[in-house]
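Kindly inspect what follows.
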Amino acid sequence: ALSRTAADLESLTRECPGIETLCVDLADWEAVEAAVGAAGPFELLVNNAAGAELQSFLEVTRSALQRSLDVNFGAVLHVSQIVARQMIAQGVPGAIVNVSSQASKRALRDHAVYCSTKSAVDMLSKVMAMELGPHKIRVNTVNPTVVMTDMGRINWSDPQKSAAMINRIPLGKFAEVDDVVNSILFLLSDKSAMTTGSSLMVDGGFLVS
């Protein structure tokens, strides 16, 4: 498991004592290479780390852009490279799930950078699926609507803002963490053995509204 904070590590250790955790700055490619390279081999990978700094298009800053590119896109590419190389070297089939967003498919106000990085993840995943398929490695994305994580609550805590979004979701609610987890588990499992290069929408119907 890749974790971003000491609190995350402590929580994971309490809940899942059998899991080995690593605390790594995903923007530091050398540190990631050393930590992840030494932790394998892997058969499954979920790239879930992300950040959302909301700015209007005209106010996007270079620093916000770089941070989002480093974590939302660059880390997905780099960690997947390390893990896929290990899978290929071991000669084992594998599955990679990249957590994208409904924002990769629909423009959202003040989400210029976030929407763009998630769209990049979708296309990266398709290229990965094409190139890694011959090695029996499947690559898919899950694309949730707003999820009630800490980040989701921070960015969608304004009732007026959240109501406008919920009104566009036919099921009338945001996603819970388990909604996304269950979709990821499906894509990691043999139950999706013939699925690769696909995006599984977990959006309550947002994109059809």
The chain has one domain: 40-208.
